[in-house]
């Protein structure tokens, strides 16, 4: 049961890891932007943005509030609420949603956070955006599949070279039981 759960988890990890890597490669050719628009008040509109571009995943939200009017009513007519997925070629995209400071090493690697608070004429804008590189999301999902792969490789080698399946110790002198870690190899179990 536990073994099956572990296998299922590592298969799921592998799928997620590969999926993120595909998105990562894609991000250098195309920009994927998922937006969600909500209207929290009569004079306010909020955008939620998830974007994959140039090796970075950007997550952000911005709220614009019009002071002293209910202009939000007309926004509702112009901007449909709900989710929206846009795709465009990277060369066609103005970089405003991709640009982050690149002063420190972390920022050059793609980790960044930006806050925006601005007062326009009759409106307030409040936003926050986070940037994380695709690799940092993909890497944790690679751990389980790599462990499985290494374990399978070790088992194969052990079978071929008469070594202990769990620690790799040479079993030629003690074929029934590993002298190093005490594991009883499968071949010995069959005989006993
Ligand atoms: Zn052993």
Question: Could you describe the 3D structure shown?
Answer:
There is one protein chain. Helices cover about 35% and strands about 30% of the residues. With about 190 residues, the chain is an alpha+beta fold. It folds into two domains: about 1-135, no CATH class; about 140-190, no CATH class. A six-stranded antiparallel beta sheet has the order 4-1-2-3-6-5. Helix 1 crosses helix 4. Zinc ion binds next to loops.
Helix fraction, binned, reads: 25-40%
Radius of gyration: 27 Å
Number of strands: 6
From N to C, what is the helix and strand string?
HEEEHEHEEHH
* Low-confidence region ranges: none
- Counted by DSSP, the helix tally is 5
Number of domains: 2
If you average the pLDDT, what whole number results?
A: 85
- So what's the overall shape? elongated
The amount of beta strand, in percent, is 25-35%
Briefly, what is this?
With 192 residues, the chain is of the alpha+beta class.
Defining traits:
37% helix; single chain; 192 residues; binds zinc ion; 31% strand; 5 helices; 2 domains
What is this structure's SSE topology?
Layout lengths: L1 H25 L3 E12 L2 E10 L2 E11 L5 H7 L3 E8 L15 H5 L2 E8 L3 E11 H28 L24 H6 L1
Antiparallel strand pairs: 1-2, 1-4, 2-3, 3-6, 5-6
Helix pairs in contact: 1-4
This protein binds zinc ion.
């Amino acid at each position: 049961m536990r073994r099956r759960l572990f296998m299922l988890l590592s298969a799921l990890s592998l799928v997620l890891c590969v999926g993120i890597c595909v998105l990562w490669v894609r991000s250098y050719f195309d920009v994927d932007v998922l937006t969600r628009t909500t209207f929290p008040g009569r004079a306010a509109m909020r955008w939620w943005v998830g974007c994959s571009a140039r090796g970075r995943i950007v997550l952000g939200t911005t709220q614009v509030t019009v002071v002293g009017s209910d202009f939000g009513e007309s926004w509702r007519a112009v901007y449909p609420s709900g989710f929206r997925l846009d795709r465009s070629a990277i060369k066609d995209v103005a970089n405003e949603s991709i640009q982050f400071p690149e002063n420190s090493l972390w920022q050059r690697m793609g980790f960044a956070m930006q806050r925006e608070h601005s007062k326009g004429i009759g409106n307030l804008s409040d936003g926050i955006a986070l940037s994380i590189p695709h690799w940092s999301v993909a890497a944790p999902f690679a751990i389980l599949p790599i462990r499985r792969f290494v374990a399978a490789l070790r088992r194969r080698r052990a079978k071929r070279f008469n070594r202990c399946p769990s620690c790799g110790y040479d079993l030629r002198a003690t074929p029934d039981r590993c002298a190093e870690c005490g594991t009883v190899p499968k071949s010995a179990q069959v005989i006993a």
